[in-house]
Design brief:
alpha/beta, 8-stranded mixed sheet, 13 helices, single chain
Length: 295
Amino acid sequence: MPSKKVTLGFIGAGRVGTGLASGFARAGVNVVAIASRTIASAQKLAKRVRGARACAPQEVADRADIAFLTVPDDAIQAVASSIRWRAGSACVHCSGAADLDVLQKAVADGALAGGFHPLHMFGEVGEPPGALAGCTIALAGPDTLVEKLERLARVLDAKPLRLPEGGRALYHAAANFSGAFVIALIQETIALWGKLGIAEADALAALLPLVSGTADNVEKLGAAGGLGSAIARGDAGTIRRHLDVLAKEAPDSLELYRILSLRSIPLALAKGTLKPEAAKEITALLEKTILKSVD
């Protein structure tokens, strides 16, 4: 089914539903129906998508060839089970962690079940056109459906990625380390700098170019090649000073620093800037820190 002829519908008009529906509409894909927990939310998104109609979830399933469930993960099974699905249509959830068994009612009704998860931090409503360009979209489902979903991903200039059956939870858990947890680490720096009287706005102004530059280095040089830090330099003296000041001023951050430093050692060795002898010294220093904390 060519992407330009397929009709899409969305159940859920939050950030993900809005981002996808708007993106598909701008790309010329026919989005025909939108539902949400409230008709007002559905109407708000429908106004942004030419030709789309705000309606009840059942009408989305009745009108669309592919109905995307862009609802919270915990609601997917309940929403899918509340609908009568047409044989030959498709029910596709956008969860990164849920497997396809949450769509078993759709399969029992004769519909195809699939997954379509954009590996993207959706911002506020009104993201610029092309916001999904270059992002990866993790797909799941039978081959006939995944082939259609691949074409839809490419319409958004995104990169389709097929996941093995049963692999979505691990994929999604792992992605947090490069997504949401990065934000948690930024907040960790903001909190620590706050002890020095640095305002959050000033901290963000300083940190975001560092984060961006780090990502650029990884893109150009790979994970190991892009690593820069006292670990990468083999600077045991600096690491000792870090450990001492954290133990004194921010003991709650000490264990996090220690774990991340230990995880950085194999990268630094692979980069070639950390020599094995220095790696042993730094490892011992970090492991000694945990023994002190236990004592």
